[in-house]
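Reopening this one. Same input as before:
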Amino acid sequence: MSGHHHHHHDHFDGDGGSSGDRRVLWAVGINVLLTVAQAIGGIFAGSLSLVADALHNFSDAASLGIAYIARRIARRPSDETMTFGYVRAEVVAALINYTTLIIVGIFLAYEAILRFFEPEPVDGWLVVIIAGVALAVDIGTAVMTYAMSKSSMNIRAAFLHNVADAMASVGVIVAGILILVFDWTIVDPIITLAISGYILWMAFSEIGAAIRILMLGTPPDLDMPKLVAALCAVRGVQNVHHLHVWSIDERACALEAHVVLPEEADDQAAGEAVKKRIRSLVGESFGITHSTLEIERASAPCAGDDAQVIGHRIAPQG
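Same output, byte for byte:
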């Protein structure tokens, strides 16, 4: 006897729908133009930190483009090839964007270290002017995507790209001013190293959440021992086993479990009553929106005392 239950959610009410899409597209266009301006300016100024900022700004434009495409794909309904739908497209996009951040951060650190050994002259005024324009664009882009970033891991990854780039622009401005006032050209690779360190710290601190969802991990804020105890305490439940809990995406959580009833319980009526109690419990107390329950008797082959409570044993291959 099995049961299935879920709540339907509109994943796009909170992040702007088509108006959110337009904001993301505007942000992509602005960042592409800024990247070209920064790269040209950085080459003429001889500033590695400005070229670094341009490179990171290009990753901003790419990340926003990926985020836009993922938003569109995620709206597709479920079908025979994707029974859970396409909502994880946004998680995949977030993983791609965090990975590119890591690559950019490592590359910038490498270039900065080389510049320590082969310093080059830097045009401070050109650096300050272009970085100032970049900072204004970064702030504008961040404002356009901030509200959406609260409810979407995908947009949050792109938003953090922009925050990192704004920090980089501030660093470049500081570098330009120090070069103008004190002729400290060494500050250019120092600022670049600081930018790369911040990018790497931010990317590594965020990428784990995307990996956890794609690996079918339990939501980090869910207390599994507490959930097991609560399920076993439901009236009419003798015990539970083969319990799985995973995130469908960052907003929806699913559960499946084998629920064991006493032998003397009435078949259909008892099973339906227990399922109703469990669904109410996991939805209200644990935020689980989708549940599949298999009702068993204590005499069932897999319902013995040695049954694995969480997960199930997978026989090794080969």
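So the earlier flakiness isn't reproducible anymore. For the record, The helical segments are 17-45, 48-74, 89-117, 124-149, 153-182, 187-214, 224-232, 267-286.
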